[in-house]
Amino acid sequence: MVILVACGTEPVDESTGSSASTSTVAPRSSIAPGSSTAATASVASLALTSGDAAIDTAAAASTTAVRVPSTTVETTDCERIAAAVARRHGATRGTPVADQQVIVRTTAWADTTATLELATRTAGGWRCGAPMTARVGRHGVRPLLDRRSGDGTTPAGVFPLATMTAPDGQRFSFFGNDPDPGVTAGTYRDVRAGDCFGATPGTPGYGHLRDDPACTGPDDEYLPRFVQAYTHAALIGANTEPDVSGDAPDEVPYAAAIFLHRHAYRSGGSGGPGGGGATNPTSGCVSLAAPDLVHVLTSLDADSVFAIGPTDWLLTTA
Question: What pLDDT, on the 0 to 100 scale, is given for residue 60?
């Protein structure tokens, strides 16, 4: 059977294609901090807060209470990553803008399997939910400014939940071939005939959704074809609208069509959709099992950010 490999800049049928550029023009938005080529750009602002806690001293048998600053203790890798990312990205005008992070961490750059956890800021520090098994690019993960469309890596860095505009004017952050599972962080677009996501570098449609039933670009993705992988999906803001690098011939095509979507499964055997039970790596996206995907999509906040990369790098650099 034919396996459709979704996301990134891979084609949507049997043919494949990729394109790269040697230009050094940086993307105008959605750039991951910590890239070896540009460490000053930021796509999200976060901050940590701590409160005071009132405790009674042992000697205060009367009514005297001593107030001391409470401490925040992050004990897991996920919690420590969330705290580190929050400290590095700071706050906008002193107001924290993200209370939730989607942590997607690998052990090494070449890993194709990752652990995904939802991190939420509380008065006592960052706390993470149950870990989920995710798949990333077939060639691992790579800082956004070091990757190129079609290289089979998932962009590493810190990215917002993106919003883009469809040809009919609808602004959306989620889409799918199945009905809205109940997202609250943004508009859900029901995939319709003609929805073609441009992923061919150097073309005006690169990084944009256009109305094109033919969807003839070698790397473009015709969304109605992906009835399994794109049951539901979220836009990860790696090189996304309003400023996309790569939609003109002289710009670097860092990334296009980077989504959080459902796993693709190997053919044969029994188990997962399409058979096999064993999951495939992606061409650049992040994928989850269907129940985990619905849980994450319906838990996201509008200001949620995605922190993607190896654990050590996320702790120190991203």
Answer: 36
Angle, CA of 65, 66 and 69, to the nearest 5°: 140
Average pLDDT, the chain: 82
DSSP state of 224: G
Length of the chain: 318
For residue 91, what pLDDT band results from cuts at 50, 70 and 90?
Answer: low
Q: Where are the domains of the chain?
A: 52-316
Query: Taking the CB of residue 318, how many other CB atoms lie within 10 A of it?
Result: 23
* pLDDT at residue number 73: 78
The 209-211 sheet, strands edge to edge: 209-211, 195-197, 221-222
Residues 6 or more apart whose CB falls under 8 angstroms from that of 178 comprise 231, 232
Judged on CB neighbours under 10 Å (0-12, 13-18, 19+), 279 is: buried
Q: pTM for this one?
A: 0.79
Helix/strand/coil for 134: strand
Choose among 253, 245, 277: nearest CA to 263: 277
Q: In 3D, which of 170, 281, 189 has the Cα closest to residue 234? A: 189
Higher per-residue pLDDT: 176 or 12: 176
Query: What 3-state DSSP class applies to 299?
Result: helix
Digit-coded pLDDT (tens) for 221-258: 999 999 999 999 999 999 999 999 999 999 999 999 99
Prior bond of 11 cis (ω within 30°): no
Distance in angstroms (rounded) separating the CA atoms of residues 141 and 16: 20
